[in-house]
Amino acid sequence: MTYHRLIRRARKTVLWAALTAALTAGVLTGTATTSQAATQGPCDIYSAGGTPCVAAHSTTRALYGSYGGALYQVKRSTDGATRDIGVLSAGGYANAAAQDDFCAGSSCVITVIYDQSGKGNHLTQAPAGGAAGGPDNLANAVEAPVTVAGHKAYGVYVAPGTGYRNNHTNGIAVGDQPEGMYAVLDGTHYNGGCCFDYGNAETSSNDTGNGHMEAVYFGNIKVWGYGTGNGPWVMADLENGLFSGVNTRFNANDPSVSDRFLTAIVKGAPNQWAIRAGNAQAAGLSTYYSGVRPNASGYNPMHKEGAIILGIGGDNSKGSAGTFYEGVMTSGYPSDSTENAVQANIAAAGYSSAATGTGTLTPGSRVSLRATTACCTGDYLTHDDADDKVAISAVSSSSSSALKADATWVVRAGLANSSCLTFESVDKSGQFLRHYNYALHLSADDGGSLFAQDATFCPTAGNSGTGTSLRSMNYPTKYLRHYNFVVYVASNGGSNAWDSSASWAADTSWLVAQPWS
Questions:
Q1: Each residue of 356-378: pLDDT tens digit?
Q2: How is residue 167 annotated by DSSP?
Q3: Selection from 432, 512, 499, 434 nearest residue 472 by Cα
Q4: pTM, entire model
């Protein structure tokens, strides 16, 4: 190495150390600002560290300080029209108002998640694969609302059966080439299905053997590797195995995580790989594993193929659930210091799920719904922790915190019509009110259009002249009604007991109250 090259390397090292320190200090001292997050993106940091992004996906913000293009595309159900959703300004946050305007009175799905790296590694609807048919479902565009630096945005809500893929990529690691990746996820939305992944997979959508994948996995399946507690865990999907560590199934250093927003990292190089993770709302990462490759055929050296997947396994296994906000893949094995600086940038971006209001039927608000019938004015719409049934229960200031949470709902834009409403449980994230056989239940989205319709209710003036009534979208003569303390969708007169005309108007009228929790 020449003297001049030594000087350049030393100068770069000093500048990089200063950048890392400045980013970290901004978060730790509370001085990080929106402008900082908007002018310095994760991919700028990776590039400065010598491991540039080769794929950069987000529906919430730009991942480069200079990026001013589209983040994703939505498709409207009523006419099949599409619209690209971009950023409010270069390096900034998603223009969620453009989506809300376009999807008003209809439902929308996310059809494309654009690659910001310039390499064209966009994610679209996953095709059929060896494990399951396809094409996969597309994510409902309104199902994962979030705020970033105070700006409204939407994540990618993956219900079972939902998946995105690109089998024809540019610049993604193949064979034993080094790479890194991170994903910012909802740490409370997961299941034990296979496999909620983001990362490198087979180009044929089939299982082609050990070591043909390298992806971030998040969930609580225990068929392969696992960590402490009951999960969920951050692990690596290396194909034919979810690895929490090297050779044993159990890694005591891989903890169950519970952060509402989670940064999950997997990186790999020749006979070296690592799992790291941390709370995406705070600076700092923990290393759950760093060491040699698994001592089994196919994993050393690796045989990566370079496709990109989101929400599914390499062979299109699609029984998983999760929510994705942003993620990247890099060329080269990032240093821990680079990743620490990226984590500081993510924390500075200001992810939040805080309610935007209370006591109103505005998406993002928290509410409790009180019965108005004379018998039951101290009763509120509640779900039962022991099962999925929905009823009305007496709630007061002296009630337990658990009951108060059961009686509190987050108002969401309607899954089947964004001009109507859907209600999400405040204490069971990812579970929604829906009717099934006329009775109300609390259920996780199964990814189907019927669920979206069953979970969508349109507010009208109270049928009794008091409060608000909530009309079923797919049964427009039926309204949310309590009958013998159980809640149904009911008509004013009909063959079912809960369709009785007696007190129907009052039973279908609800007072939108301040939230109990």
A1: 888 899 999 999 999 999 999 99
A2: S
A3: 434
A4: 0.89
